[in-house]
Design a protein that fits this description.
Blueprint (H helix, E strand, L loop, with lengths): L1 H25 L4 E3 H7 L7 H14 L6 E3 H13 L2 H12 L6 E2 L1 H14 L10 H12 L7 E2 H10 L1 H7 L5 H9 L4
Antiparallel strand pairs: 1-2, 3-4
Length: 187
């Protein structure tokens, strides 16, 4: 078991190193702009849903809000996507939902991300709920104090209690596989 975990860890570290090398080739200035981020991850300009999603991802990792990712922000993003634990990924998901940055999610913020995810991943599944129905159910199951907003603690606790909620709230869209798959397409 230990040997298998070690190989998996080495493989992930090798992938992170490869992506870091790409960063340095693509961004010798040390600053990665949104259009470069989209190009690196192969987001076609014709895909509005993927474009909005990748913009949201980009801005969630731009911690100093200078509209670029420096090397440290980029490495932190890769580490979270490829190796982050569940709680860290949920915190990141919450940050992505929380568009206004007030530390609470309202229905509009949740519906916005659900709509994007609905277009990206739900059409291929057998879910028959609309984005609004998904949002309503999430609030029903997660908003413990029924104040119409979801706090970070409610978000994390709700996601960990209910598998369906977890599936809806965790913004992976199989991010690890997506990063690894797109890494192979890089110049």
């Amino acid at each position: 078991m230990g040997q298998e975990e070690s190989r998996s860890e080495e493989m992930e570290l090798a992938q992170i190193q490869e992506l870091c090398i790409v960063f340095m080739k693509e961004c010798p200035s040390g600053a990665l702009h949104l259009h470069e981020f989209k190009r690196i991850f192969g987001v076609p300009s014709s895909s509005a849903e993927e474009s909005v999603y990748i913009e949201t991802v980009f801005h969630s990792f731009d911690t100093n809000k200078d509209n670029t990712l420096d090397f440290l922000e980029y490495v932190a993003a890769l580490h979270l996507i490829l190796r982050g634990n569940l709680e860290d990924r949920l915190k990141w998901s919450f940050k992505m939902y929380d568009k206004d940055g007030n530390g609470k999610l309202d229905r509009q913020e949740v519906k916005r991300i659900i709509r994007i995810l609905y277009k990206l991943k739900l059409p291929s599944s057998d879910v028959s709920m609309t984005a609004s129905e998904i949002c309503d159910r999430i609030f029903e199951l997660v908003d413990q104090n029924h104040d119409g907003q979801i706090s970070l603690s409610e978000f994390i606790e709700g996601a960990q209690k209910d598998e369906w909620v977890m599936k809806q709230l965790k913004l992976d869209v199989n991010a690890t596989s997506w990063v690894i798959q797109n890494c192979g397409k890089l110049p």
